[in-house]
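S.,

Sequence below, as promised.
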Amino acid sequence: MGLRDMLKRQMRSVLQWQDDDPDTLFQLLPTPGDEIKHASRLIVGPAQGCLLVYEGRIVDAITEQTTLSLKTDNHPFLTTLASLPTLFESPHKVQLYFYRTTLFPGLRWGTAQPVRYLDPVYRLPLGVGMNGTYSLRLADARTAFLRLCAGERRVTISRIKTVLDAQLPQSIAATLAGAAYSCTDIDSRLDELGARIHERLARLAGEYGLAVPEFAVNGSILDRESRERLETVFAMRARQQAAEEVHLSYERLQQIEALRDAARSENGLAGAGLQLGTGLDLAARLLAPAASLAAADDLTERLRLLHQLREQGLISQEDFEERKRALLARI
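The prediction came back faster than expected:
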């Protein structure tokens, strides 16, 4: 290396960050050998800040647009000459980490795996996935640098985002448990749910020197296993409600369905010479002792009951017509 090259690497007099990558949060300003000319002009532009790291320690932070002169122990000539025995490396290292103070809006997030929680209404363990957006900005550059940079020359908002995204499932689970939301209420209360998660995420981000000005939950979805569990519960409740409408207990409805299935099975009652019409007669005998049917002789009530049995698929259309004709013949 010639003397001209040795001097040239210390002759940089204007230090300015001109990074066009919108994903960059922190960037170490490249300086050959980390040597900076004494009294160089430092320019910090709009929406920028700068940390002065001297010999491994943060000694100053510039948080607004400005131009100033750096005062270090480096002199372009004396330092170079003094560094000849050590391959021209100055013992006085000044590193300039520029950073953005602007807002990073519209960052998308989503749960990679369903968040597990116990539904307070159906008492079932369910898994729910969520997605949405939030925004980030630096709140404390010193804290963010010490906790997130770890000596890296460039730190992106994408990498910082992964730190927060990893904490979201826990925040969502804690929020769902504390708010006691049923799965059927989540989509109608996304704004309220988002506000609760936002509060938790903001506290966490503050520990990293970050701020989360905006947070939103855009949608949710139950995983396949959870949907199947709920469909089973809904079907059972629908059958129970249908039984109550015709004054049947759920247990009696199950008995009738068992008779129907046996009558249709080759190895069941049908194999013994019984048909579905016989199953209807057996169902009538099951219904007869019920106190709620004390007025079963009333023709209108019997026809309504017959109609409900057909609607629930407990009897065929042919059985319905035959039984209806028998009832009407009594008029």
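Confidence is low (pLDDT under 50) at residues 1-11, 83-88, 266-297.

Coffee later?
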